[in-house]
Amino acid sequence: MSGLRLFEPQASTIAERVDALFVTLLVVSAIVMIGVWAVMIWFAVRYRRGSTADRSAPPDRHVVIELAWTLIPFAIFLGVFAWSIALFAEMQTPPKDAQTMYVLAQQWFWKIEHAGGVTELNELHVPIGTPVRLLMTSQDVIHSFYLPAFRVKQDVLPGRYTQLWFKATTPGEYPLDCAEYCGTNHAGMGGRVIVMAVTDYARWLAGHAGATSLAQRGAGLFRSLGCSGCHGENAQVHAPSLDDVYGRPVPLANGTTKLADENYLRDSILLPQKDIVAGYAPIMPSYVGQIGEEDVLALVAYIESLHRRPEPP
């Protein structure tokens, strides 16, 4: 037997800090519980019926004690709250140099596509020491992408994109689970993450060469669906340019602005009447029912890959 293991291996840069927060909460909760029970038992024994305790002159209020048992736990709570918020914010903000991979969940498997076009089912190969960002959506119901050894988990939702990121620190194979009940075969919806040395990962990718990249597939769809007829350079229709649109604020007809992230691009393809760009007529047709989630991901990847001007200083 391997013995009792309280924690999964720590295989990412965030894992140790998540465990530290968990252990801190566990220890503080245990101290409070033991303290409350100890005082409660002491009073129950001390002032039980028939005891010799003096009850003739009950003590006045002790303001210092009351302030202490109120303010000290409150300060501890604020400290843990600030710690958890800082950790959560870091877990929700992938580095700018993160390598994006695309995840499509479906009953009951995970389909993962690398930017270069290599596709995996229920497996994810990643290089060690490289930030990896997963852009995820579901084809059917709510799933949850859970990597216990990396201490990251994110719901994967139909109709929108969610993301998580991690940086693996230890080579090896680690379980990938669905942590949201998603139907009859939920228990069998799993897989593994294979963390490889950078050179081994490069060789693995080279061994799957020849696949069309997601952005290239999106470019083909962009032309075949007629998108270039309105959004192309020589288009006769007055439509917004897609060059450099990704990651930029877009002014809308209702006077607000919206960041052109992946969810905005997805909605623009499937729900074009939702956010009308200022200065343009609402004439774009919806592609709901004409293309699937994989095609939408490809179109989004293509739009992201379009020429980007340098950021202003």
Notes on the structure:
The structure is a single chain. The protein is α+β, with helices and mostly antiparallel strands. It has two domains: 1-48 and 94-211, Immunoglobulin-like, CATH 2.60.40; 214-305, Orthogonal Bundle (Cytochrome Bc1 Complex, Chain D, domain 2), CATH 1.10.760.10. It is built from seven helices and twelve strands. Strands 3-2-1-5-8 form a five-stranded mixed beta sheet, covered by helices on one side. It has a five-stranded mixed beta sheet with strand order 4-10-9-6-7. Helix 4 packs across helix 7 (293-305) and helix 6 (262-270) crosses helix 7 (293-305). It is elongated and about 95 Å long. The N and C termini lie far apart (59 Å). The mean pLDDT is 87.
Main sheet properties: 5 strands, mixed
Proportion of helical residues: 25-40%
Number of strands: 12
Into which percentage range does the β-strand content fall? 15-25%
Count of the separate structural domains: 2
Give the strand line-up of the largest sheet: 3-2-1-5-8
Multimeric state of these chains?
single chain
* Uncertain stretches of 5 or more adjacent residues: none
- SSE succession: HHEEEEEEEEEEHHHEEHH
Mean pLDDT: 87
Q: How many DSSP H or I helices? A: 7
Examine the coordinates and then state which fold CATH places here, giving the name of the CATH topology of the largest domain: Immunoglobulin-like
Which term fits the overall shape? Answer: elongated
CATH class of the largest domain: Mainly Beta
Please state the second-level CATH architecture of the largest domain. Sandwich
Q: Specify the CATH homologous superfamily of the largest domain.
A: Cupredoxins -  blue copper proteins
Query: Terminal Cα separation, in Å?
Result: 59 Å
Structural class: alpha+beta
Q: What is the radius of gyration?
A: 27 Å
